[in-house]
Each structure stands twice: as C-alpha cells, then as structure tokens.
C-alpha cells in the first residue's frame, strides 16, 4: 500500500502549491490512481469484489500515461501469501475508449468468460490490462509490443501493490493481440518488473508473428482483392498504431481520401461493427493506398522494432498454442516463430490444435492449466 500513499501525497503537495506540475509526472509506474466498480458487461461471472483500476504506466515514446485494468478475485479466502495472479492480455477489441475491456467487456463474451472463468476456478486472481489509450486519454498504439508489455507489467504492479490479498507471483496469458502482448511481456517482464514482482512464465494463443514481412507489401492495389473484414480492420488498426507511435511518418499521406476516412473511423469503431461496415461496403485494402508503404525508409526495420516478436531473451517458460485452421494470424509464420525460438535455445513449448483462431483459446486449456500450475509450484 506504500505506492498509493506516495502518489496521494504528491497529489496533495501539488494541489497545495508545494510542488510544481512536472513532479506529478514522476509518479512511479504501477501506481493505482483510482478504483471504481466495473460495469456489469465487464464483470467476470463468478468473480467477487471485482473492480476497475486506473494506474500509471507508459505509452509510445516512453511517455507517461494513465491506463486502466479490470481486477477479478475468486470467491473464498485467499491462500497463505495471497492469490497468485494471471495477467490477462486480451485480443483486439478496437481503438476507441468505449471498446476497452474494463468498460465494455470482451468482444467474444461466451469464449472469454468461459476461459477466464476456468482460471478463476483454478484459484487465480486475474488482472486484465486494457493497454494504453483504451478507456483512458490518449491514442492506443495498437500492437506496439514494448508499450503493451509495460502496460501489463504495470497493471500487475499496481494491483499487487494495492490489494493485500494478491500475491506477487504471476504469469501472463494472452490471445491474438494479447498473444503477442504476452510474448512481449514474457521477454521483458523480469526487466520491467524488477525485484518487486515474481514473474513465472507466459501463455500465448493465436500469436501474430512476422506480420512485418507482409505489411511492407501494402500499397496501391496491394492486396488487389477483398480480404476478410477482420483482416482489413486489423490493418487499419495497425496503420493507426503506426500513426500514433511515429507521427513523423504522416501515415495519412500514403492513403486516398477513402483510406483516410476509414483510418479515422477505425480510431473510434470497435472491431465487430468496423468489420461489419467494411464487409457491407466491400472495401478492398489495396484501394485505400495512394502510394506504397515501402517508400518509408527502413520500413521493415521500423516495423520489426514496433511489432516484431523478440527471438531471444526469454528467461521463463513460454507456452504457445496455435490453431491449425487459424486465418486471423499467419499460422505458418507463427509456427516458424516457435521454431526460431526453439532453435535459439529459448524455453518455448508449442502446442497445435485442429481449431480456428477463436476455438484454440479454450481448446488449449487442458494443456495450459497444468503448464501454469507447474509454474507456481
């Protein structure tokens, strides 16, 4: 509870004129700024005393920001030492504040509540970070892996520092966008968390890998055919993420008038309604570009630094679950990424399932539950 007290003291000092405003930005990351009840839509069935927290973190350019998270507790008395923590890194919901997990709940309600409910029944508390710019001021730098890792780690730091019933031992579990966030968190958790947190390992399903290799091809009439609505929506979200992280690129200048209109719409619309509108309008992604993205100097290197998954540096076990019928991510590339990790001597386990992107989430539980149990042993 020491960090919230420090933050409150800084706030009071600023209000009293004893400290000038720049000091307020020095609030330690992972500090709880406020706690409020969750909406019914964002409340995990079966959880108790659940809450939405606002906490200090960082966003693009390592700038300070306020992020939000949902915290779910199992029923009953916590075990000695507190509830072990599952940090849930959610999949793509959209970029608008109203899309945030702690505001609107999951996009795939039945799937995610079944999945998180299973972890809750196993005796884990759950800390579900929204990521910077979702549900709080500022833009969301979609798929910016380092930012997502900071947000997840800082959410765990904030929750465990605020709630005495939570243990400091934790793992990260994520799907899709969150699968990538879980991998990035796995790479940086020990570094970002420091000695105050006890990071044990990670689970990622539907992990998007090597998408930087495909994004470099985007431009006028590339791709020339209509893709799935979600795939086009993901691309628009990525372009927005690049715009937020690298404003100097002037991403809008690579787009047609229609492209700029869809880019602006994607900043506000959640994934499902955006996909529905893209499908209804028959939007072809290649028709939204006025010039190729390859005109950006060192485009592949920039994209790799932005969203390319780290191939080394993992210090705790990593579980990857991939559906062989998954078309939301590039399944062959995800399998290649797992093979690269293995070749690099990283502590990765790959499990495959005869399922699609969404179906793999719960299909992986018979394997991931004992994996996580062993991490906490």
From TrEMBL:
Q: Which residues form a coiled coil?
A: none
Q: What keywords would UniProt list here?
A: Signal
The GO annotation for biological process reads: lipid catabolic process
Signal sequence bounds: 1-26
Q: Highest taxon of the source?
A: Bacteria
Gene3D superfamilies in the record? alpha/beta hydrolase
Is Signal included in the keywords of this UniProt record? yes
Record's keyword annotation contains Metal-binding: no
SUPFAM superfamilies annotated for this entry? alpha/beta-Hydrolases
Molecular function via GO: triacylglycerol lipase activity
Name recorded for this polypeptide = Acetyl esterase/lipase
Organism of origin: Nocardia tenerifensis
Source lineage? Bacteria, Bacillati, Actinomycetota, Actinomycetes, Mycobacteriales
